[in-house]
Amino acid sequence: MLAVCLLTFIAMSIAAVPATTPTTTPQPPNGIPKCAIYECPVYTTLEEIGSDMWKRRIEQSAWVHKVAPTCDRTEAIGLVVGDLDAYLEDNNINESTPIILEVAENIPGPNSSCTGQSGSFPCCDQIYELFRFIPEASEETAPIPSQDSGILLMHTYAFEIYGITFLGPNHNEEEQYEKLRKYLDEQGILYYGSYYDVAVYDKPTDPQPHRNEVMITFI
């Protein structure tokens, strides 16, 4: 009789315990850890190519950007990042990621720094321009920067890019750029070959490995 009572008690105790649903760890947007901390542009992955390349659509967004008045890449980043960060801070715009560095050939022409018409930029083989994403909440209210700041505000429609992800120092970017170009050439995909973009998600003080992406806009 005692054994029957014990079995009945155990059965009732088990029935009283609510069933638990296994929990899953939320994944960061687009699998990019920093996008779970800071707001990123809205990405739509259109195609995964191998383990590191992809085709992506960047949805409509707003950016501030500025051309660096120097031929030195490291100096360019140091000169411009502070100006873009100050614009965000002065206008109470939340910090975002990534910082995008555009590396473009300095092609002689009416708007080239080699003509001397601008009066402020040296004649370089490459032009460096930095972009900061404006979070969606501030997209419509972000003020136009002052003309003397050299900063421009840009609103873009959705556009598509090919890219390659790599972990580690940024100096690997040229190798990754050539790898991505080779793939596009082999596939017969037309793209703008006079510039490419490097998306940097981590601050220099963050522990390695840092996530970086090289991106090419196709025609």
Which features characterize this protein?
9 strands, 9-stranded antiparallel sheet, 219 residues, globular
Quick overview:
The chain folds into two domains: 28-60 and 158-192 and 205-219, no CATH class; 62-156, no CATH class. 21% of the residues lie in helices and 29% in strands. It is built from three helices and nine strands; from the N terminus they run αβββαββββαββ.
Strand-helix topology:
Layout: H1 2-16, E1 43-49, E2 53-58, E3 61-67, H2 73-90, E4 99-105, E5 126-134, E6 152-156, E7 159-167, H3 173-186, E8 195-200, E9 211-217
Antiparallel strand pairs: 1-2, 2-7, 3-5, 3-6, 4-5, 4-8, 7-9, 8-9
Portion of residues within helices: 10-25%
Structural class: alpha+beta
Q: Compute the average pLDDT.
A: 84
Low-confidence stretches: 1-15
Instruction: Report Rg.
Output: 24 Å
Strands side by side in the biggest sheet: 1-2-7-9-8-4-5-3-6
Number of helices: 3
Approximately how much beta-strand content do the residues carry?
Answer: 25-35%
The number of E-state strands comes to 9
Major sheet size, sense and barrel closure: 9 strands, antiparallel
**What's the number of structural domains?**
2
Tell me the distance between the termini: 83 Å
What series of H and E elements makes up the topology? HEEEHEEEEHEE
Can you tell me the overall shape?
globular
Pfam family, one: SOUL
Signal peptide: 1-15
Family: Belongs to the HEBP family.
GO molecular function, one term: heme binding
